[in-house]
Fold this sequence. Notes:
By secondary structure, the chain is α+β, with helices and mostly antiparallel strands. The chain is 27% helix and 27% strand.
Amino acid sequence: MLFHAQIPNQVGHLGSLVETFLPWTGLAVPALLLCALVRRSATAAVAVVLPALTWCSLFGGTLLDKRADGGDLTVVSHNVNEHNPHPAHTARALAASGADVLALEELGSATAQYERTLAGTYPYHVVRGTVGLWSGYPIDASRTVDIAPWPRALRATVRTPKGPVTVFVAHLLSVRFTPFSGFAAGARDAAAHRLGDALRAEPAGRTVLVGDFNGTFEDRALSAVTSRLRSAQSEAGAGFGLTWPASLPVARIDHILVRGVDPRASWTLPATDSDHLPVAATLRL
Length: 285
């Protein structure tokens, strides 16, 4: 826990793997305490204090409820899963969330169903490849952001009553874990660097980036992106806001990141027919 940043990432992306699941290292604390009690060792019990304090210093603030009222714009993002068996049901659930702006990732053959189902709630939308943006406010200046050989990210301007907000929607490439290659994240990391370049070149002050990063905010390999924005969940959430897999979430890989705006609240929405949970945030412009 204390020296996770020193774990090398060159072989098997071991550092990224540890940082993805770093909060779960806290499970070692009760296990060590149980061993100390079984051994009836005061020295071992005292030794448990160090990892406990380390975990609290890293994640104690995350457990606090930092949500507040107010805000001008509610944003929802969801990886809907291209194999979703009930896309129309998922679309209706997301529309019922009350989001002003809705971003979807991993669109596939059911894109037209999402467009039809969401049309009554969101009069404006744009789809680029496998990602899309729906809005109750006008959208303009939309374009594909080249982060992969096929469209997986877009940039658009949403004309809110409080002025324009630049919105990026991205789905970084998937990672795989095997005993032979380790945490295979090279393609994801390359896409993150290209997305980071786009964010660096973005002149707009009020910027929101949403999507499925296939990695956590703590993963150093995503620093090209995460170093340029703030996490709505970290600043205005309650708990870790884990999103994947939806049936038993162990990591938050779906994010709402911002700069030039203030997060007021961040939370996860109930499960849909996807393997990810939707994420939401209310922002003050």
